[in-house]
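Appendix B. Raw example, untouched.
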Amino acid sequence: MLNTSNNNTRKMIVIHGGHFSSLAGFYDEISNVLMKDADWKVGTLDGFNDILYGGFGVFENNEEIEMIWKLSGKSKEDLGLMATQEFYENKIRQGKPFNTELIQQKLNELLAGRGQTLFEILVEIIQSHKNITLVLSED
């Protein structure tokens, strides 16, 4: 659907925080929204970043996108400190191919109140794509 209220041709994409409560659920939501006709699903942070370049989902490379993240407050909580701690601890337990030293450092920063949560990481990934305007919505 196109957003024409402000005379631009940006494609509007909606992520709904009510559809998930975990990182795996976020990946499912993103796959359903951005990759609905593709034969693979997002399953990593790198994979999520890759699809935001466009060209093999619902939008083309450098196409102007307005991404609305509904119930973003719920997602911020769901993908907050506890989920992020669990994410890092699972990677440390798994070991190779992960750089457990780096992950332990990220976990230590998180627990000291200086690290990013999964929600903050996802927002930063989206915002790093200059063609995407992210709107965090509480509705």
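End of appendix B.
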